[in-house]
Amino acid sequence: MVSAAAQAGVVAACVVLFVPMGLAGWHLSRNKVLFFSGALFVSLAVGVHLSPYLPSVPHLLATSFFVPGPGAASAAASSSGSSCVPFLHRVSWSDAASAGSSSAGAAANGLGGGTARTWSWPPSLASACGFARLSRDDASLLLNGSWVMVAGDSQARLLVLALLRLLLDPAAAAAAEPELFRRHSDYRAAVPARGISVDFVWAPFESNLTRLLREDLRLAPRVPDVLVLGSGLWHMLHVTDAASYGDALASVAGAAKSLRSPLPVPPPHMFWLGLPHLVNHMLNTDAKRAHMNGTMLRTYDHEVDQRGLVRGDGGPFLLLDVGKLTQGCGQHCTADGMHYDGEVYDAVLHIMLNALVIESQQRI
């Protein structure tokens, strides 16, 4: 609703604008240059007087670029790609006609339930924000010359598997899998044609991640271009203390910030791999069923949100919300209540890659 002050301003502006222009037209009709100069002067004067009552230009542009979509999934396709980042996890799940290689491979390794599910972004959201599944060539071009490091527990290992399946041909990815899944071990791979290096660091506890950031990477001649960290499952099982987990996360956040600050080059793109949805009755040991329940999972997730780790709380990491994605895929996508089909980690990977596209454009 237009305020009374605005209405009065418009009326006054009309008087100021049209009366002088009419008089100018009557007296200056023989001198068109003088007439239009006077009209321009009066128009500018009116604009100055009306400006307090009009919305700002950036506000008008932002409103013009708002693209409505179905329900809460609408996105703002503005000139800043960061406005699309909150919508990266808005994926939909559906039954696939047949199991893809990632789902079938995960099921063969006992890492998922084997029920074929596939994911996608809603078409309106994909169109507004430009989200897309990357081909092998596109992903290789995006990561050209990059060092990607993923550190954490088995969830992090599954993300590396999804990355290798995207970057390598099927035979090479299958050959790499046994080495990647050596129990409690690190792993390194390379894509020589693109100069891409991929490291997995076995770091199941938060103290392992803090040491990696404060010691190992500080002594390295180069830091990773993309750094993905995640932990919590081992702490939940063996320590079972959310407050202690939160304190450890605060240390990780501090170490990550200190790693970024003194660098003479752009800092790494940092991502935090969230905890998966746990299906308690499917967990395969009594200890897991006792300690890794829904209540404990919620308290651990709360610590991630509150300890200055992720960007929404002022932290350095963009959250990869594995919990939301695994819950969306459902318990049919897991065989043990904790590790999910490869399609889930493919979704995590493409959310990360699309975030990299946005961040890379912003750094140019």
From TrEMBL:
<keyword id="KW-1133">Transmembrane helix</keyword>
<feature type="transmembrane region" description="Helical">
    <location>
        <begin position="6"/>
        <end position="26"/>
    </location>
</feature>
<feature type="transmembrane region" description="Helical">
    <location>
        <begin position="33"/>
        <end position="54"/>
    </location>
</feature>
<dbReference type="GO" id="GO:0045492">
    <property type="term" value="P:xylan biosynthetic process"/>
</dbReference>
<dbReference type="GO" id="GO:0016020">
    <property type="term" value="C:membrane"/>
</dbReference>
<dbReference type="GO" id="GO:0005794">
    <property type="term" value="C:Golgi apparatus"/>
</dbReference>
<keyword id="KW-0812">Transmembrane</keyword>
<dbReference type="GO" id="GO:0016407">
    <property type="term" value="F:acetyltransferase activity"/>
</dbReference>
<keyword id="KW-0472">Membrane</keyword>
<protein>
    <recommendedName>
        <fullName>Pmr5/Cas1p GDSL/SGNH-like acyl-esterase family protein</fullName>
    </recommendedName>
</protein>
